[in-house]
Design a protein that fits this description.
This protein has 310 residues and is α/β, with parallel strands linked by helices. The protein has 2 domains: 161 residues, 3-Layer(aba) Sandwich (Rossmann fold); 139 residues, Rossmann fold (3-Layer(aba) Sandwich), CATH 3.40.50. It contains 8 helices and 14 strands. The chain has a 7-stranded mixed beta sheet, with helices on both faces. It has a 5-stranded parallel beta sheet with strand order 1-4-5-6-7, with helices on both faces. The two termini are 32 Å apart.
Length: 310
């Protein structure tokens, strides 16, 4: 078994290797002056079970091309099996035709991963679970929830209500509420533009309660910030947000700085610059991904990693 990494999240890749007791595979991944990507695998992989760790975080197109070229290089170097490990799967929000004459880019990316030579995919907290069906190869879908549950167990919150900031995240929020043994509430939103949303109504009782907002992705943070403002206006006390993938562009950081969110709990599936003025707790999913990689390598069950209270 060998693990290689592109340039999107080498720190996470090294931590994954440390968790399973192996060295990160040696490779050269760099750009030519014209922007084209050059890849060379610097060690023998013939007959090896190979894992390529690469998040499609910004710049997503560049990092996806790195991954495609790395997989092609490994396939041509006679690796026996190649698993694309995407802690964050980009383009996942473009999973359906919601307007005339638009693509289904999540499906296109799936096709490109398969065409490049991947034999299976390991990913975490897809924006829409049906994306697994876009692949004609096996997909192991992990959840960041066990890592966040462990943090909340060590830092308990009294009188807590789990809140979904939109209707799309209801299933995830319900799983959190069931596991943590709390009440559940939902905020309904209306999207005005790709970067702007409006929280319009609340279902559930949150007056005098501490809130845990649960979502899979925060980039411009509009959904979280608007939901938090609505909850604060309805009598909520402290508001925390748990997000699997916090991409956080400049607009998102500025919104969080000016929001009523007291703490953002997230993971290291994507890299981000150091953010001042916002309380961000970053939890590592390296152990979880490392354990899944080991189980895939030994053909053991991955599902059993996520069995909580049945």
């Amino acid at each position: 078994m060998k693990v290689f990494s592109g340039n999107s999240n080498p720190i996470l890749a090294r931590e994954i290797c440390h968790s399973i007791g192996i060295q990160l595979g040696r490779s050269t991944v760099k750009a030519f002056p014209n922007g084209e990507t050059f890849v060379k695998i610097d060690e023998n992989v013939r007959g090896e079970d190979v894992f390529v760790v690469q998040s499609s975080s910004p710049p997503a197109n560049h990092y996806l091309m790195e991954m495609f070229i790395m997989i092609d290089a490994l396939r041509r170097a006679s690796a026996s099996r190649i698993t694309a490990v995407l802690p964050f799967y980009g383009y996942a929000r473009q999973d359906r035709k919601d307007q005339p004459r638009v693509p289904i880019t999540a499906k296109l990316v799936a096709n490109l991963i398969v065409a490049s030579g991947a034999n299976r995919v390991l990913t975490m907290d897809l924006h829409a679970q049906q994306i697994q069906g876009f692949f004609d190869i096996p997909v192991d879908h992990l959840y960041a929830a066990p890592v966040i549950f462990d943090y909340l167990k060590r830092n308990p919150i009294d009188d807590m209500v789990v809140v979904s900031p939109d209707l799309g995240g209801l299933k995830m929020a319900a799983a959190y509420a069931q596991t943590l043994g709390t009440e559940l509430a939902i905020v309904a939103k209306r999207r005005k533009s790709p970067t702007e949303t409006e929280a319009i109504s609340l279902i559930g009782e949150i007056d005098g309660k501490n809130i845990l907002l649960v979502d899979d992705l925060a980039e411009t943070a509009g959904t979280l910030v608007n939901a938090a403002a609505l909850l604060k206006g309805r009598g909520a006390r402290k508001i925390r947000a748990a997000v699997s993938h916090a991409l956080l562009n400049d607009l998102g950081i500025e919104r969080l700085k000016n929001s009523v969110i007291d703490e953002l709990i997230t993971t290291d599936t994507v890299t981000r610059p150091v953010v001042s003025g916002v309380s961000i707790t970053t939890l590592s999913v390296a152990g979880l991904l490392g354990e899944a990689i080991q189980r895939i390598h030994t053909n053991s069950s991955v599902t059993s990693l996520f069995e909580f209270k049945g």
